[in-house]
Write a structure and sequence with these properties.
nine-stranded mixed sheet; about 45% helix; alpha/beta
Amino acid sequence: MTDVWDDTDTDADQIGGRLARRQDLPAERIVIGSVMNRPELIDELVDVVDPVDFTLEQHAWVWYAVDELRNEMVVGTAGISPFAISTRLQAMRASGRMPCVPLDAVTLSNLYGEGVGLHAEHSAARVAEIAEANRLISLGIQAQQIGMAADFDRDTAIAAAQAALDGVVRDNQHNTPGTLGDLLPFVFQRAVTPPDLSNRIPTGIRDLDELTGGFAPRRLIIVGARPGVGKTTLANTFVRASAVNNKIPTLFVSLEMGREELALCIVSAEAGVALHHLDKGNCTDTDMQKLHGVSDRLAEAPLHLDDTPHVTMAHLRNLIRTLIRKIGLRYVVIDYLQLAQAPKAESRQVAVSQMSRMLKLMAKEFDIPIVVLAQLNRGSEQRSDKRPTIADLRESGSIEQDADIVILLHRPDMYEPESPRAGECDLIVDKHRGGARTTITVGAQMHYARLVDMAADFTEREAA
């Protein structure tokens, strides 16, 4: 049987009788000969192929030599002569820059002749494709070696393999910086185009939407609170607003509650049926009517619940990538940061900081907003007003630095049951990159597992 990697135009190194590396030397020769004839082609081909893609090291050094010479001399219509290139290669070798023996003058002359009148871009694309295959082959060999190692560490190994897999295909479109002038049309368009569901995620809290315009792609939003204040309840509000009310594909990752428990909270909040009635099976006929009334909307909501225990950043990254491909995922909510399985580090603070940085990079890479719940330390409980600050983020490290928005939760009636503000929750926007810091007060309907806009505030706005 012919090996699946075997091509009629492919030479290859062999390991145990199987192909270890692919080559297309004719394509490489066409590319090199073409840039020798027309050095300006380098500017066009650099977005297609990289010199490190050549499987023959000497070919890469011919590319480097041509690139240097074209910037030092006036190149005629006949390109750069094989003699000039040979002289430069010998100088590179003599200076110690070039680790391999350069191609001789005869071979360079033959390359020069092969590059006349041929389509270099097609051959460059072929060389790049072969390079991707070789990187994939190398990754497979390395993965096998790591998997067989006696000191195999699951988290480190899988994360490294995932990162290496992402690097198999080189994304050249991001390599060239854009000028400010190139971005001005975008700025002017944004200036007169209010955000909508195509580029923002509604939060379900009217004043928070007005403040932020909704959560934008690439943003990392941290929601911090002490235990029992309402982090998960706010997360519940967020995912209902996105998935149930606006049909935005959403992932809710819970490291604390199971999927069934999450479903109870979401259904309770949406139907307005007391959570303890659902949990204890004490729903009345009226409750059941409410549940049936929202069942169709809930069933159609593109909300995916994940309760995988001991989630690692590698698992989360792979899950997000998979759902983006399968369902067009646009939004991720994680409950909560400190329960994720941290990478190995010299301290817990460093490990949590690494996770927050990874989450910020995921938000940028996948072009989605990521909301992460985080637990606060006891600092707020030592203050007379009990109000939290951003410094209370437990094992904060770089959390506040990585976050674009930090929202801290405070409920006065947790510390003063007879408080005149019973049933209220403050959303303290303590960091808002590109926007104002403020406090938004919402109604805390904890028996329905939801936070809602304040009715009084709504009446005042309607009257205005």
